[in-house]
Automatic annotation (TrEMBL):
Family affiliation: Belongs to the complex I 24 kDa subunit family.
Gene Ontology MF terms: 2 iron, 2 sulfur cluster binding; metal ion binding; oxidoreductase activity
Cofactor note: Binds 1 [2Fe-2S] cluster.
Taxonomic lineage of the native organism: Bacteria, Bacillati, Bacillota, Clostridia, Eubacteriales
Pfam family, any one: 2Fe-2S_thioredx
Necessary cofactors: [2Fe-2S] cluster
Protein name listed in UniProt: NADH-quinone oxidoreductase, E subunit
Length: 163
């Protein structure tokens, strides 16, 4: 088992001021937690525990309620995302053509697992179910760039081009 890299929270005073404005905007609104979380993720890129605590305190709800909503919906992330976001398609067409091997190659190259971010904040990896490019299977996205008909030995060169 590998030890998960923990990247410390590095929010700025400007981000905190933005979050406080968002909280104030949604404070008295029924169902205000959801839009607050969405806007907070837009500010920080993810929802670290420090941000969840600020939201809970600001909205007057429990931290467990904030955490429950943040973990229930897949649109929210509790871990930071890298400067370059990698997504490997594990949909049926891609999987049949070996996308699991592509994901393994990405993880091996970066030294992290799916759902994690490199310690330098450059890359994060996620998997997805379909990107709609089944004819190019297996497919990997780096930011908005689509790489298709991949072989595991091509992964390192592609990722090196983003450094």
């Amino acid at each position: 088992m590998t030890e998960k890299t923990v990247i410390p929270f590095q929010g700025t005073p400007e981000q905190e001021a933005q979050l406080k404005e968002v909280i104030a905007k949604h404070h008295d609104q029924p169902g205000g937690l959801m839009p607050t979380l969405q806007e907070a993720q837009g500010i920080y890129g993810y929802l670290p525990i420090e941000v969840q605590k600020m939201i809970a305190d600001g909205l007057g709800v429990s931290l467990s309620e904030v955490f429950g909503v943040a973990t229930f919906y897949s649109q929210f992330s509790l871990t930071p995302k890298g400067k370059h976001r990698i997504s490997v398609c594990l949909g049926t067409a891609c999987y049949v053509k070996g996308s699991d091997k592509i994901l393994e190659a990405v993880e091996a190259k970066l030294g992290i697992k799916s759902g994690e971010c490199t310690a330098d904040g450059m890359f994060s990896i996620d998997s997805c179910r379909c990107v709609g490019a089944c004819g190019l299977a297996p497919v990997m996205l780096v930011d908005e760039d689509v790489y298709g008909k991949l072989k595991p030995d091509q992964v390192a060169k592609i990722l090196d081009s983003y450094k």
